[in-house]
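Quick one before lunch.
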Amino acid sequence: MSITCVIGLQWGDEGKGKIVDLLSRDSDYVVRYQGGSNAGHTVVLGKEKFVLHIIPSGILHPGVKCVIANGVVFDPRQFLGELDGLKKKGIRIKKNLYISDRAHLVFPYHKAIDGIRESRLGKKKIGTTGLGIGPCYSDKFARTGIRVIDLFNPALFKERLQVNLSEKNVVISAGGGKPLSTQDIYQQYLHYARQIKPYVTDTRLMLEDALRRKKRILLEGAQGSLLDIDFGTYPFVTSSNADACGISSGAGISARKIDKITGVLKAYATRVGEGPFPTELNDALGENLRRIGGEYGATTGRPRRCGWLDLVAAKYSAQLNDIDSIAITKLDVLSHLKKIKVAVAYKYNGKTIHEFPAAVEALARCRPVYRELPGWQADISGINRYNDLSVAARKYLDFISQHLGVPIGIVSVGAERKRFLIKR
Ligand code: IMP
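Model of the inosinic acid complex:
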């Protein structure tokens, strides 16, 4: 296997960071191919917690080359801050980190417009991270975006910036904001350009060369399939292809070359931001999951909405990505429960349905049909062999696997790197 992908099967926050960290041991390259600093991938090494927003989670493995590919919307300020934080924690960064020259840049006006759009939507807001992700991708597709490579042609960069700001400042002023200065941003970004220069390269070419040399590449999906711009709960989605569909365009790797796709599924469901969530628990059970699971946004700190595992949605994601195996995360968070519910169908307009609806209005009206399974009520966080899990815990996992028709490969039972089980 030379190309493996890790994809979230829910609304993000599935625990992809930990799974990528585990799989990085057997990888030469780890690649982020979509999203931007809206992601928050957490890896816990002993007492140290790392939250990576833009730098791939493979960075904690010396010898692994990390790539921020063309499909990522790149915020240099965030990147440099994160880099600094990693260096301060003793992580060695030397010829192991690369940024695509084709990646689009996030500018302060993207963030300002993100905020204005959200406040204009009022109660109908998306609940974005406010990091300018949507406005940056909008510019990319409107062909007015500015890419990393443009920073190295200052005259052209300034011209594009001027044109963009003449339009953006109208929107910013109308939204009650203070117009932004071309000169300030120009100087600031040239300063960033000098700092990021050693990392900038044609990453597509680099990955092609790596493949020719039979190197192992791990693609790190950000957000989750249900937040995908095409197949997610539109418009309550992020602005990129957060599923395996985004790999080809986001990294410049042909879909024909992908060997294995691991779908990451949290043992229960969470969602941060707005949008329908059929299995949401607005009660003490939901609050307990939030508290025990530490369900607060790694990027924004917002409390995540919590609920039961939704296998209608998970099956949709598993099929969409054609996953080969499932990595279950946070199984330990359910250990306190006597009974665990799992949605296996929806009731919609008096009918039982098994398909995930395209319209959010329909999804909002779906009521989950649950199967109830016994809990295991035992601490499983110290277990490191699959067969040592209690019968009830294994039954829960088997039920998921059978329903999705996909084998389980990894089970995570705690935040730390060592807390996982491999199912053989
Ligand atoms: P945006 O990506 O900031 O535009 O936000 C769009 C939606 O995606 C919002 O509901 C966010 O809360 C959600 N979102 C974006 N990134 C993540 C993530 O990494 N994990 C979970 N939700 C996310």
